[in-house]
Design goal:
By secondary structure, the protein is of the alpha/beta class. It contains 6 helices and 5 strands, in the order αββαβαβαααβ. The strands form 2 sheets. Strands 2-1-3 form a 3-stranded mixed beta sheet, with helices on one face.
Length: 194
């Protein structure tokens, strides 16, 4: 077997090191794909900011999921992707109360409701008022219909608008839905949460 020259050994060594570095970087990137985005704490107070990488969005997944938290997902991701990133639903989740196919927007909160007294009575007119604010991201037509000034037709328009625009980041976006005037917006602000 012929012996390698000193320059050949150096070149082969450099190529081997480069391959190891590229492989280690790929493994590290693959392994961190499912990790939640840790909330950095500022030196003063509890506020923090997360810089989004060009095509990523950051969402808060809460409620009846295995690992509630803040997660970074690719742009165009859907509610079902966020639930999956949070480890899937937990026992007692009422997934039929949310639109799992809706597109996510940056800063959106995904609330997976839990089955319980509030969920069981939410479809009955007059009973949702005692349960507190309704989640804008998961409100059903029946829940929206319980709000003063909202009928089944307007509730349907709200859900369609939410689905067409990939969710709603704030109650103020409902201003763009036909049939919602200033008085209705005040009722919505009191009864809905983002």
């Amino acid at each position: 077997m012929p012996e390698l020259s000193r320059s050949q050994v150096f070149v082969y060594g450099a190529v081997a090191i480069a391959l190891l570095l590229v492989g280690a970087r790929a493994i590290r990137a693959e392994g961190s794909g499912g990790a939640p985005v840790p909330p950095p704490v500022a030196a003063e107070g509890n506020s923090f900011s997360i810089e989004s990488g060009g095509s990523d969005i950051v969402v808060d997944v809460t409620g009846a999921v295995q690992r509630p938290g803040v997660y970074r997902l690719p742009a165009g991701a859907r509610v079902i992707d966020a639930i999956g990133r949070a480890g899937g639903t937990a026992g007692g989740a009422t997934v039929e109360a949310i639109n799992r196919a809706a597109r996510l927007t940056d800063g959106q909160q995904v609330v997976v409701p839990e089955e319980g007294p509030a969920t069981a009575t939410a479809g009955v007119a007059g009973t949702a008022a005692e349960t507190g604010p309704i989640s804008l991201g998961s409100a059903t037509i029946g829940e929206l219909d319980t709000i003063d000034g909202i009928g089944p037709v307007t509730a349907q328009k709200i859900v369609e608008y939410r689905d067409q625009h990939g969710g709603l980041a704030s109650v103020d976006q409902l201003d763009e839905v036909s049939g919602i005037g200033p008085a209705t917006m005040e009722s919505l602000r009191a009864r809905l949460q983002p």
